[in-house]
Amino acid sequence: MTPGWRELYKRIEELHDEYFVGRWRSGMQREAGRQQDALMAMLFLEALGIPNPTSYYAFELYPEFVEEFHRWHQRMGMNRFPEPGVCC
Amino acid sequence: MPAVVVAILVFVAFFLGYRFYSKYLAEKVYALDKSKPTPAHEFEDGVDYVPTNKHVLFGHHFTSVAGAAPIVGPAIAVFWGWVPALLWVVLGTIFAAGVHDFGALVISVRNRAQNIGTLASSVINARARTLFLLIIFFLLTLVNAVFAVVIANLFIAFPGSVIPIFLEIPLAIFIGQYIYRRRTSALIPSLIGVALLYLSILLGQAFPIDLSPIASAIGLDARMLWIILLFAYTFVASRIPVWVLLQPRDYINSHQLFIALGVIFLGVLIGFDRIVAPAIASVPEGSPHWFPFLFITIACGAISGFHSLVSSGTTSKQLDNEEDARYVGYFGSVGEGSLALGSILAATAGLGAYTVWQERYADFNTASSGAVGNFVEGVGHFANNLGVPLGIATIFAAVVVVSFAATTMDTGVRLQRYIIQEIGEIVRFRLLARNLTLAAALAVVIPLGLALYPDLAFGRLWRLFGTTNQLTAGLALAVVAVWVFTRNRNPLAQIVPLVFLLAMTTWALFIQLGDFFRAGDYLLVAIDGVIFVLTLWLIIEAIGAFQRARSERAASGTDGGTTGA
């Protein structure tokens, strides 16, 4: 395809995505958030003071998710995490 | 008269309505202000609140509101002749639906994108929220029951459509997975999906599926078995995440909406079919009278309360600036009116000969149970004008209608689950509020019971659905009218359709109460009675709210001059 046609095709593709895919964006992100929240709860239940039988197995995943943890507790309505030194 | 002439005249009327009436509404009634930040900017979060280009937002809004309902209602209502149905669609779209959809969008945008239920409690009073939930509960119950029956009837009348519809499910799941995993754009996969769906029509035509042998083996009739299978499917579908099935299937269906509209109007243009139905039909003795029943038989397509849920639910969160509300809200209802016009033309010009039409619309029961089939045949005929073989064209039309109806059912059951959970919260029944399976099961079992109600005439169920839909529109119009009035602007544009709708709904419900009672349909008597009470409740709340607003306005002096919210 010549650059002109490629440009046009790209524009059509973008418009199509906006038109048909964009309608579902918020629902999808909310759903993804919910699934992520379930995983975060699994990982960090003990940080909230709830005994968690899976924590031994999930331990090595902690470093991967520490950054996420801050955003998670904020999303859950807790602006600052009360335990000092955990994240914020 | 050639159908294409009617179509052109209607489009001219819609254009004039948009050009002049919506301008009046935008400037004088809703006082749109381009400089006011909309919730999409104020609360922009990249998830729910996203400022969106107005053409794109129009597409989202239109595909959310247009479904199977504007097809079924008009296809039944041509029973009274094509002129009354057409006039109600045209006048309703311009003076009622446009005002309603546009108004619900504006009031939501001015109030932090709250939905119409929450707005009802703040504009009218706290009780109005409960009223709203109850109305929506009945609306969704009837929607789900009605569309289960519609799909079952279509599967029986057009068995060739079964395979394409069931193939659409794995096809959609596969397309969805392909798009997510490859992180590619949806254009090519969606188009391939649509093409494969239409190719599978050949398969459907070669192997029509008839359930009657299995049904009779287990002591049911085929329609009952289909209805049970459909609800079993929606139960599962309402429990799985939206991205697995609902979303990718919607990619395919949104394309189908535009393809169907294109086929109808191109087919009408090229075939130059004439309308074979009489302008005003003489109906047999004992049929429901067009006044008031026309106005509840056609709800979606003339005015539909369901639109206020979309306007105030998702659309208001994405409006880039207030002036776009005119295009998105008002023009969205014009789009729906066009689909209703397509349905009228299919059921009057698409049937070919007057004798066929007369046979199909011999009495109200024949007309209402066969209406969707008539639409399918009509659209099949229009597609045939474009060179598609008739057998395939008819299955294509059936596939389009079933896809719309199935998506409406999927969304309906899902929404019903939320409503049941919310009712559970209000009555403090925690199990109902928290247990997804219980809520989903109730959302399925209640309409299932209604759809399986023995010897139920579809026309009666449809009329009940129409009244509930108009009642929802009445509630939204009342909220918008009070809001406009308290801002010292003229609420006549809302009050006229509001009073008209409530009068027609109350009258129709009252007549139906007697009809159902005489026919011994006690379940319908009960539902009709409850909806009747809800209507009276709404009328009392609306009058009360107006009186309060009037006394407030009098107390603050008429030149108080509060504009905006």
Tell me what you see in this structure.
The complex is a heterodimer of chains A (88) and B (565). In chain A, 65% of the residues lie in helices and 0% in strands. Chain A has 88 residues and is mostly helical. Chain A has a domain at 26-75. In chain A, helix 2 crosses helix 4 (62-75). The radius of gyration of chain A is 20 Å and the shape is elongated. The relative contact order of chain A is 0.09. Chain B is built from 23 helices and no strands. Chain B has helices spanning 3-29, 39-42, 54-65, 69-77, 82-110, 116-123, 127-157, 162-182, 187-206, 212-217, 222-239, 246-271, 290-297, 306-313, 324-348, 354-360, 364-385, 390-426, 430-434, 436-451, 458-486, 492-519, 522-556. The longest helix of chain B is centred in the last third of the chain and has 37 residues, at 390-426. Chain B starts with a helix and ends in a 9-residue tail after the last helix. Residues 559-565 of chain B have low confidence and may be disordered. Classes of the chains: A mainly alpha (88), B mainly alpha (565).
List its traits.
heterodimer; A: 88 residues; mainly alpha; 4 helices; 65% helix; elongated; B: 565 residues; Sodium/glucose cotransporter; 23 helices; 76% helix; disordered C terminus
Topology of this protein?
The complex is a heterodimer of chains A (88) and B (565).
Chain A: H1 3-21, H2 25-44, H3 55-58, H4 62-75
Helix pairs in contact in A: 2-4
Chain B: H1 3-29, H2 39-42, H3 54-65, H4 69-77, H5 82-110, H6 116-123, H7 127-157, H8 162-182, H9 187-206, H10 212-217, H11 222-239, H12 246-271, H13 290-297, H14 306-313, H15 324-348, H16 354-360, H17 364-385, H18 390-426, H19 430-434, H20 436-451, H21 458-486, H22 492-519, H23 522-556
